[in-house]
Specification:
By secondary structure, this protein is mostly beta strands. The chain is built from three helices and ten strands, in the order αβββαβββββββα. The longest helix is centred in the N-terminal third of the chain and has 6 residues.
Amino acid sequence: LDSIEKKYAGLKDYTAEVSVHFDIETFKAPDMQARLYYKAPDKMKVESKRVFFFPRDGGYLNPSQFKKEDFEIRFLESSTDDGRKAVKLKLTPKKTKKNIQDFLLTIDTDRNLIREMEITQFDGREIKAVIDYGKFDGFELPVHIRLKLDIPSFETERPKEFDQLIQKTKRVTGTVEISYLNYKVNSGLSDEFFKESGSSRG
């Protein structure tokens, strides 16, 4: 985790165009486009011309999210995939963070990148993110994130645009494909910008 934090120490902010495609049981939605803004350590904003659902958990890269002092960390295994060495870690927040119970991270130890992230929440929602990277202004940032969702049906009562998901089924599963384009890195986004109202949901 230290090596990831050092890798992105110079990343102050980024802006990118995002395209989101949903493939979720009982939920039909057109592809959505928006602009995403991030500022270290924890500010994120999404702007869209219309109602926009964006999965904040696993849907974007926040390199400051996993500070080792904030978690109980357990090593699970090491592996090699296509010649790339990786380790899997289980991170349990020392203090309750929103609804998150724990994270499972698969880290490429050669490039110090989070390849996969599995999120388990106290309400039973499970999210797995598989991340592909490209290089932008010297930083490796996501070009594609594939989210696999496994959600209790009661979770779908919010937000409103997910009302159609309320079914008698006990679990709702599906995928969300997020593509990133046209990055701008370290453009000097102000804190005040993130206080302005946006149209993000997630």
